[in-house]
């Protein structure tokens, strides 16, 4: 979040929430705090993050109750109880924000919350009236920083003084040009390294709004940029300073993925009806969830890859042991030959007995080795199923990002539980009232029958056993990992068209979905059984029949009939 965006949020807060009573705090993620303030007729929730990748301050809608039991949130909640937020301070282009609290407006300041939103050096401080640190987002040891150590009980000292030049609206073009021309770099880095408050996103915004002949001007060396192009950049530079100083802000999206808070609609031919704080919240909510989604996918892929290698390694070890165990008869023959000899010495008897013992041991071990081989093969197949579920999830984008994240979290939890994998889990409140579970895909056939598709092992179990009735039909790709598909034919007799659509969807949600035709097992629910001691979604069946599914036809059907949730 660039300094202009921070300034725009603080301007809104200063106008709308001063003074207000502090109500509560919670910490949904390790580097994020959510604060609630109550005014005369409304609540205002803020989210402040000191995550190095995305430090930010946002006004947000009322969030889920997650993270109320963290130490930091408890300290803030009890320390600021019944206190009033009386001022919000931030100096010009500094990225340090100070919230001051008193028992009531007009009283002496009693407590402070300070947010330093400076990339990887971001942090949060909870201070008493003497600026002693009561709590801190992350403590910094002397071995981590030569400038300042940060720990509870010490006196707060600010970050290093920013020695860059402060942008001024009254600065002349020549002075501005001389300042950025000291080091012959690209225009982007000349601005960033010379002036306070300049971030890569601001240089992108200036380039976008300026009508320069030179495309990609920010990446050009300053010595090769014409005066006319520099003057165009300078003109918009002064507009930015003016709007920053006068708190004249407006939210706009440009280049699809980027936003700006100081463009005007008419300047970029863009109409925006939403207010700035709501737009900022929506923007960060979408992009942070998208990022979380990508990280979860990579994490699950990594877990599956690592576990698959472990299972394959164990499988190879057992295969080698099985090969060696096939020699048990040779050891028995050698022992027989020893005892068949006319002249047997004591050491021959000892040797023969050892050979018999080794032969028996190898013979006994064969069955155990075969059992282990079966287990490792099943584990590899199971991991293949999880990979297919992950691919199926990515093939559809019909629902909210929060639900897709939940699905990924469920798949990861299922893998970890099944293979006893320990991963660091964020501590959640036991009394979370907003806990949700993902739901199977459900579509209607042309005749009005319901079709359900499981997207993880828990859902496969639910639709196959808990949600199903005696007359329903179960579909699954033959000898291929994939989702369970259940046709709710207990309500009425399924037509040939219904059966075909169910088979097409079973083909689409399987590993074989890139084939033209896929053999599908069609089984009555009454002939379906859970495998004892098998994981969720492990089934066996009898009296099945084969029909052929077409994945392409299944994809066309589900795109037309599945409602998209934005």
TrEMBL record:
One BP term from GO: rescue of stalled ribosome
Domain NFACT RNA-binding: 450-542
Annotated GO CC locations: RQC complex
GO MF term (any one): ribosomal large subunit binding
Name of the protein in its database record: Possible secreted protein MPB70
Natural source organism: Prochlorococcus marinus (strain MIT 9301)
């Amino acid at each position: 979040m660039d300094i202009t965006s921070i300034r725009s949020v603080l301007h809104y807060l200063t106008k709308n929430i001063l003074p207000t009573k502090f109500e509560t705090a919670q910490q949904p993620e390790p580097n994020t705090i959510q604060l609630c303030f109550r005014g005369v007729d409304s609540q205002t929730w803020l989210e402040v993050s000191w995550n190095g990748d995305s430090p930010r301050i946002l006004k947000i809608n009322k969030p889920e109750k997650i993270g109320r039991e963290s130490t930091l949130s408890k300290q803030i909640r009890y320390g600021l109880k019944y206190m009033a937020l009386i001022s919000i301070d931030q100096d010009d282009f500094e990225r340090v924000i100070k919230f001051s609290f008193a028992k009531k407006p007009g009283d002496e300041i009693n407590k402070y919350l300070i947010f330093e939103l400076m990339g990887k050096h971001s942090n949060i401080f909870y201070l008493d009236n003497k600026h002693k640190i009561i709590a801190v987002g992350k403590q910094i040891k002397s071995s981590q920083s030569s400038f300042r150590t940060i720990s509870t009980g010490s006196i707060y000292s600010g970050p290093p003084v920013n020695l860059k030049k402060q942008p001024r609206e009254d600065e002349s073009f020549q002075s501005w040009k001389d300042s950025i021309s000291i080091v012959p770099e690209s225009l982007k880095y000349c601005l960033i390294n010379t002036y306070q408050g300049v971030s890569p996103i601001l240089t992108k915004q200036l380039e976008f709004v300026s009508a320069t002949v030179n495309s990609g001007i920010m990446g050009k060396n300053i010595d090769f940029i014409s005066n006319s192009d520099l003057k165009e950049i300078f003109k918009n530079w002064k507009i930015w300073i003016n709007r920053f100083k006068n708190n004249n802000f407006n939210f706009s999206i440009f280049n699809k993925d980027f936003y700006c808070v100081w463009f005007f609609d008419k300047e970029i031919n863009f109409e925006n009806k939403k207010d700035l704080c709501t737009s900022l919240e929506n923007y960060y909510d979408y992009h942070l969830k998208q990022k979380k989604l990508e990280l979860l996918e990579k994490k699950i892929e990594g877990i599956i890859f690592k576990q698959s290698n472990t299972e394959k390694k164990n499988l190879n070890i057992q295969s080698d042991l099985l090969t060696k165990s096939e020699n048990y008869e040779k050891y028995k023959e050698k022992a027989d030959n020893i005892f068949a000899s006319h002249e047997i010495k004591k050491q021959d008897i000892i040797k023969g007995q050892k050979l018999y013992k080794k032969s028996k041991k190898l013979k006994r071990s064969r069955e155990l080795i075969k059992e282990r081989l079966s287990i490792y093969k099943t584990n590899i197949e199971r991991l293949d199923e999880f990979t297919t579920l992950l691919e199926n999830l990515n093939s559809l984008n019909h629902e909210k990002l929060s639900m897709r994240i939940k699905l990924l979290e469920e798949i990861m939890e299922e893998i970890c539980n099944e293979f006893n994998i320990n991963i660091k889990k964020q501590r959640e409140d036991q009394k979370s009232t907003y806990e949700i579970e993902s739901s199977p895909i459900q579509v209607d056939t042309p005749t009005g029958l319901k079709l359900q598709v499981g997207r993880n092992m828990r859902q496969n179990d639910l639709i196959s056993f808990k949600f199903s009735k005696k007359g329903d039909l179960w579909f699954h790709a033959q000898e291929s990992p994939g989702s369970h598909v259940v046709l709710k034919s207990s309500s009425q007799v399924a037509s040939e068209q219904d059966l075909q659509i169910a088979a097409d969807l079973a083909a689409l949600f399987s590993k074989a979905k890139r084939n033209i035709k896929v053999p599908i097992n069609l089984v009555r629910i009454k002939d379906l059984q859970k495998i004892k001691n098998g994981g969720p979604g492990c089934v066996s069946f009898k009296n099945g029949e084969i029909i052929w599914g077409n994945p392409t036809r299944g994809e066309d059907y589900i795109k037309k009939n599945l409602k998209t949730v934005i």
